[in-house]
Amino acid sequence: MRPIGHVKEVSRSKSWPGHIALLGQTMVICIGYVVGREAAQRFDPFLLTGLRAWGSALVYIGLWSFFRRWGWVSHDWGSLSAVWKKRLWLLSFLGVFCNQLLFNWGLRYTTAATTALIYALTPSVVFWLGVWVFRKERVSWNKLLGLFSAYGGVLLALWHNLLHSAHGWGWLLILMAVGFWGWYLNFSPPILTRLGAMQVTAIVMVLGGILHTPTLFWGIFRQDWSVLGGYAWLSLLYLILGMSVTAYLLLNAGLGYLSPTQAALYISLQPLGTTALAASMGQEPLSWQLFVAALLTTGGMWIFRR
To answer: Are the C-beta atoms of residues 270 and 113 closer than 8 Å to each other?
Structure first.
């Protein structure tokens, strides 16, 4: 598997597999925000996160074994230096332990569309960390214009959320989850380049399962088992196989044909897709605030990435 950021030199006519992969990834994520909300509503957030972490870890262990058999991965845990092991533990803490717990918890108390709109701001979090902390980004007028538009869209979505949701404060947990995800994305490039996306993801997921073991057991005792039904378990399965496995593999496949900038344009479609899907399934009303918020956020992040 190619590391994130590596782009194969192909002509425009041969880049169609990348577009198909990223369109598929966008659909998987949009469905995940809507379908995953059922699991977030029914499962205790600690139990949900523990089950998702260990379910994802087991899937990636199987994938890693398969790719290793074919010689597509070249490292194992024992061959890594102490420096790389510490970096992997840090990535697991940021990207799995903190991010997934806050995401699952926040989705319980907010809407799918609001969640998608806030997650669309991930590049802006990475950008501001790059400006203020890592000193590798520069502020420009087009970036500021795009950010102000996107932030305005999110504020409008929060207004919609407070008008139409009994628990509007979950957006704060989602915003915190995006913050941890931004740190993850800033710390991950060096080790992704060194070890490859598939290996890093597999190791991070397994370490995340280990970190979430206490979370899993605590959630077992907190869970109200009478509220769980078949759809809740299917929703959990989608979070594992769809959000944690399929979406990432499709993204990695798409980046083999397209640049990160091209891929970002598909990520910008997630708020619109999630909003339309949530409204069609009756999860939330399609008000003018939500529609305009999706347009502002999508357009703002498109301008930001130009």
So the answer is: no
Torsion sign over Cα 68, 183, 106, 5: negative
Instruction: Report how far residue 300's alpha carbon sits from residue 279's, in angstroms, rounded to the nearest whole number.
Output: 22
Q: Is 175 exposed, middle or buried (0-12, 13-18, 19+ CB in 10 A)?
A: middle
End-to-end CA separation in angstroms for the chain: 27
DSSP per-residue letters across 274-295: HHHHHHHTTSS---HHHHHHHH
Residue 120: other Cβ atoms inside 10 A: 25
Q: Is residue 122 a contact partner of residue 178, using CB atoms and an 8 Å limit?
A: yes
Query: Closest Cα partner for 64 from 182, 204, 191, 274?
Result: 204
Burial bucket for residue 71 (CB in 10 Å: 0-12, 13-18, 19+): exposed
Structure tokens belonging to residue 270: 């997630």
Task: State the Cα–Cα distance between residues 110 and 168, nearest whole angstrom.
Answer: 5
pLDDT band at 173 (very low <50, low <70, confident <90, very high): very high
Residue 42: C-alpha distances to residues 35, 39, 105, 176 (Å): 12, 5, 11, 22
Structure pTM? 0.87
Residue ranges per structural domain of the chain: 12-108+172-282
The candidate with the shortest Cα–Cα distance to 245, out of 28, 43, 66, 93, is 28
DSSP characters for 14-61?
G-HHHHHHHHHHHHHHHHHHHHHHHHHHHS-HHHHHHHHHHHHHHHHH
| CA dist list (Å): 54 to 51, 59, 170, 247 | 5, 9, 24, 17
Sequence length of the chain is 306
Kindly report, residue by residue over 231-279, the tens digit of the pLDDT.
999 999 999 999 999 988 887 777 677 766 566 667 778 888 998 899 8
Q: Would you say 111 and 224 are in contact if contact means Cβ atoms under 8 Å apart?
A: no
